[in-house]
Specification:
This protein has 3 domains: 4-147, Alpha-D-Glucose-1,6-Bisphosphate, Chain A, domain 3, CATH 3.40.120.10; 152-361, Alpha-D-Glucose-1,6-Bisphosphate, Chain A, domain 3 (3-Layer(aba) Sandwich), CATH 3.40.120; 367-447, Alpha-D-phosphohexomutase, C-terminal domain (TATA-Binding Protein), CATH 3.30.310. It is 39% helix and 22% strand. The chain has helices at residues 20-34, 49-62, 75-84, 117-129, 149-158, 163-167, 183-192, 220-229, 257-270, 284-292, 305-315, 338-352, 356-361, 377-390, 431-447, and strands at 4-6, 9-13, 37-43, 65-72, 89-93, 102-108, 144-145, 172-176, 196-200, 233-237, 244-247, 275-278, 298-301, 319-322, 326-329, 367-374, 395-397, 402-405, 410-415, 421-428.
Length: 449
Amino acid sequence: MRLMMTVSGVRGVVGETLTPTVAAELGCAFGTYLRGGKVVVGRDSRPSGAMVQQGVVSGLLSAGCDVILLGIASTPATALMVRRHSAAGGVVITASHNPVIWNGIKFLTNEGLAPPPEQAERIFGIYDLKAFTLARVEQLSTPQSDPSAANAHVEAALALVDPALVSAKAFRVVLDSINGAGGVEGKMLLERLGCEVVHINAEANGRFAHVPEPLAENLTQPCEAVTAKQAVAGFVQDPDADRLAIVDENGVYIGEEYTLALAARYMFAAHPGPAAANLSTSRMIDDVAAQAGGACRVYRSPVGEANVVAVMKEHGCQFGGEGNGGIIDLRVGPVRDSLVAMALTLQLMTLTGKTISQLVSDIPRYVMIKQKFECEKDRIARVLEAVRSQCEDGQINDSDGVRVDYADAWVHIRGSNTEPIVRIIAEAPTADRANQLIDRMRQIMDATA
C-alpha cells in the first residue's frame, strides 16, 4: 500500500506507509515551501497523533518555522486559529473518518484552507526530491502552546445564531463525539445554546466507539440514545469534527445529505443569496433554494472542500458545503464545520417550531445510489468523453468528471485521484430510476473496453 497524497493532504497506515521519518520529511517540505514563518498545528485524538505530530513539528522547526501547538483540536478550530495567529500556514494531524490504524497530515494555507492543487504539487515535489531548506541553528525556535482554540471556535459558531432564542427552548440533545477531537468544542457549544447534553463517546482517546463513516449501520448507538433519553435530536461528529450526521427525534438517522439541506433551509431564509455545493451533492439543496426564491440559487463545484470554497468566493456565497455532512460558513472559516452545522440546525428548529423529522418531510425526498468500478487510469478519459458524447439528452457539467442532469434525476461519473476506479453516483425519485442511470453509465464504460 502506498502513501496517499492528494489535494486533501496525506494519509497512510501508521507504522507502514506513515512513519516518524515520513512525518518529519513532510513537515520539513511544508516548512521549506513556506520559507519559515508561523505554523499552527492541531491534531485529532488518534493514539498515533502525538507521534505523527512530533515528527511533523520537528520537520517544521528544522525549516525555521515557529510552531504554535493547539493540542487536540478539531479541523475547523485549527483553521480558525491559523487566521487568529496570522500564521503562514497550518497542519492538522488527522485521517478524518478512516479507521484508527490510519493517520494523516493535512496542510492549510494562511487562510486556513487546503492548498489548491498547484500548491499541493509543489509541497509534494519538495518532499519527493528531498529538496529541503534547513535553517541555521540561530534560527531554530521552541514550540509554543495555545489552549484557546476550543473557546475561540465556539464563540465564532455562536455568532451565527441567536443563543438566547435557542436557549429558551432548552432542547435535550444527544452528542456522539466518537471519542474524537470535537467533544470538548461540541459540548461547550450546545451548553452555551442552553441544551441539556447527553454526551456519549466523549473521551478524546481516539478509540472510536463505532466505525466513523456515517452509515446507518454504524450509528445504532446514538439512535438508541436519542430514543432512550427522549432527545429532540442526535448530533454525530466524525473524528476531526468537520462533518455532522443528524438523528431525528424518533431515533432515525436521516442521512448525511440532509445536514446541508437543513442548513440551507435556514440560511436561504435568514441570508438570501447564492450557495455552493459540489457536483456529487444531492439536489435537495437546489429544491430548498427554489422554495426560497429570489436571489437564492446553487453553484456547483468539483468535488473537494477547497473547490467548494473557490466557487463560494467566485460567486459571493456566504455558505456552502458537501453532501458528506460538511457545512462551510465563511464567517467562521473556509472549511467544513460540525459546530456550525449544529448551531444552524438548532436555530432552524427554534424559528420554525418544527422537529427534525418535520423539517425533513418538507424537503423533496430522493434515492441516492453510489457505486464504484475498476477502470484503468489511461481509460478513464475515454470513458468520460464517451459519456459526454452519448448523454446530450441531459445538461452536462464536466468540471470534474461528467455530471448529467435531467428534469427528474442526475448522474455523476468521475475517476478516483488515488485508485484505478471510477465512481458513479446517481440520484432520482426512485431506486429504479437511479439504477437505470448507473446501468447506462456502466454500458458506456463497457463499450470503451
